[in-house]
Structures are given as structure tokens and as C-alpha cells.
Amino acid sequence: MIKVKKVEKYFDDFKALDGLTLHVKKGSIYGLVGPNGSGKTTIINHLVGVYKQDNGEILIDGENPYDNIKVKERIGYIQDDLFYYNQYTINDMKKFYKGQYPKFNDEMFDKLHDLFNIDPKRRIKTLSKGMKKQVAFWLILSCNPDLIILDEPLDGLDPITRRNVLKLLLAEVEERKVTVLVSSHNLRELEDICDTVGFLDKGKLVLEKKLDELTETIHKVQVAYNEENKEIKLEGKLKIKNIENVGKVKQLIIKGTREEVEEAINKTNPILVDFIPLSLEEIFIYELGGEQVEISKFFE
Questions:
Q1: DSSP state of 102
Q2: Angle of helix 159-176 relative to helix 106-116, nearest 10 degrees?
Q3: Which of 118, 224, 227, 291 is the 20 to 30 Å CA partner of 147?
Q4: Is the pTM of this model over 0.90?
Q5: How far is residue 48's CA from residue 43's CA, in Å, rounded to a whole number?
Q6: CA proximity to 295, closest of 155, 184, 185, 154
Q7: Average pLDDT score over residue span 157-174
Q8: What is the pLDDT of residues 135-163, one digit of tens each?
Q9: Is residue 147 within 8 Å of 68, Cβ to Cβ?
Q10: Which phi and psi angles does 110 have, rounded to 5°?
């Protein structure tokens, strides 16, 4: 669905995108993560046709989105800093969106009204931040886009509304094979919905993998031994990415398949072995080099 190949973008002397390459398959939910200034919003502005790259190639279903109305009609975009005509009511915004999106679905609009339960006659300026974000989802989902691009999409939503919005997105992917690109600092949210994650830093993609591949090849294991400070040496190609000692108990981060890890650990004669689920944030830390990585900048 989305192909970005060796894209460069300069703002005067600043290189915002540095040979960026990424791929998003049709019908997938792709999470784009990175610190402030990493290039997330810049590449999104290219995908929605606002910016034109200086070098490289950007294609959405084989077409360049820049200055391409037909491509833009298929893209639903919710940005972090929402813009509305404040004097407009929600119904006025509906009319505006209908003029921009030929596939706008009135039936879907009415259906979502029951979910969000906001009076469509209300003026935008009277709504809270969270309500404005709900209206954004309400309008974009009514447009029946083939590609939905979201920049910090759940910020400002209460937990119940957040859960309902995620369900709506998952339903769109399941029923209509919609493609979703989500940019967020909240890795916990991404691991609930994404099937692929890309980590961006300084305009480059430093890691891109399917979530199931990430979780299948790196493990957190808690191991206990009869003796304190036992030295562990694992056979084969397994690599211990991190180790913490608490008396007779060790907590290990090990790269390899679960079967390989389990077999190797059992050969060290432990009295207890317990596999503990890794969070996406922990996976990110150890995939990119362990605790020495300045990981805090990614989650500010």
C-alpha cells in the first residue's frame, strides 16, 4: 500500500529525512515510533501530499500522493493538532468533508453518532479537546478511506472512548481491509493494535519488524539457582542481552527462539524457570542495543 524508498527532505541546511525507506502492506496496522524531531510528522506530511521529497520515491498504491487529488480522496488523516472552522457545527463539517470525499457514507455518519453521542448541531468551538478528537474520528471513518493516517490519535480521549475508537479501527481493517499508519509515543497503545512497528530516529528507520517476530525472538526469563551469583554460560548462538542478579535469582534478556532458550537454560540446572512477557518498550530497548541506548528520549 505504502512504499517509501530512500527519501530525503531538507529544510534549509537541516536534513529532516535521511534516506528513509519503509513499507506498509495493505490491510495492516503499522506503528511508527520515534522521538521528537525524528521525522515522523515530516514523512506523514509527504504521505498525505503536503510535502514533496527532495530525493527518493513515495508511492501509495503505485501513485505519488503529492498534488494528486485522486490519491488524497482515499486518505483519511487525523493530525495531533486538529484544525476546524470554529464557527462550524459538526453538521457543517460533515458537509465540508462530503465535498472532499466522494465515498462519504451518511449511513456510517448516523451510526457513529449513536456511538459518540455528541449533538451534530453543536459548534466546534464549544467542544472539549477530547470531543474534538472524537469528531475527527467520526468524520474520517464516515469518509470510507482506504488508508487512515493517525498522528498521536488517542491523545485526549478517555479510556472508554479510546477502547471504542480502537475497536472501530480494527473493524475497518477486518471488514474493508483498510490500511492504518499510526504515529505515537505510547508504545503500550501500539502493541494493542499494530501488527508491524517501525522505529524512526534522525530521519532514518533504525528497526522495522512484525510484532510477532519481535516477541518470538527475544525473551525475558527469570531463573533461580541453589547457589548465589551463579555464572551462566549458554550453549549455541544464544546471546544474553542483559542480566540482573538478585541473590539466587537472575533475570535474563535472551535473544533466540523460546525452544532454544528453554533448552539452554535447563542445561544450567536451575530450580525455577519462568518466562515473563516483554513489553514493546523493553523489546525496543534491547533490539537497539540494550540499556545503554538513550531510550528515555523515545517516550517523552
A1: T
A2: 150
A3: 118
A4: no
A5: 9
A6: 185
A7: 91
A8: 999 999 999 999 999 998 887 788 888 88
A9: no
A10: -65, -35
